[in-house]
Amino acid sequence: MIRGLLFAAVAAFALAPAALAAYPLFIFSHMLVFAIACLALNLLYGTAGSLSLGHATFFGVAAYAGAFLYRFTDFDTFELYFLFGVATSTVFAAAIGFLCVRTTRIHFAILTLALSMVAYSLVINGAVFRLFGGLGWALYLLGEGSMYLPPLPMLGMRFAGTEFIPVLYYVIVAAFLATMFVLFRIDRSPFGQALKAIRENETRAAFIGIPVVQYRWRAFALSGFFMGIAGALYGELARQITPEQLHWVFSAKLVLATVLGGTRVFFGPVIGAFAFVLLDEIAGQWPVGRNIAFGVLIIMVVLALPRGIAGGLSDWVAWRKNS
Question: Which of 141, 142, 219, 316 lies in the 20 to 30 Å Cα band around 183?
Answer without folding.
Answer: 316
